[in-house]
Amino acid sequence: MEVSGADFNKFVQRSDIPLLVDFWAPWCGPCKMMAPMFEAAAAQLAPSVRLLKVNTEENQQLGAQLGIRSIPTLALFKGGREVARQPGAMESAQIVSWTRQNLAR
User: Fold this and answer.
1) At which residues is there a site annotated Deprotonates C-terminal active site Cys (predicted)?
2) How far from 84 is each of 26, 28, 102, CA to CA, in Å?
């Protein structure tokens, strides 16, 4: 699900389940490569994890606020706070494994 900065903050504050967020931009080649992998990971992680996408080109203030320095970057939120972050493109199996490992902590 693509979300704006305002919606992102609502999801983080109100979500009862963990959120995995893909910070990306339309001009980013690795982001485009990872998009189908992120969707495949969503199919494996849902409904226990909600997956969101934030376009950092359209939401530059949010990206700056969160300190997103490179894209793509995955960030995992649980209980209203960030618990893990991973820059760089990953395959769907890596996304699933990384998410589950960080939620088990």
Assistant:
1) 22
2) 24, 22, 7
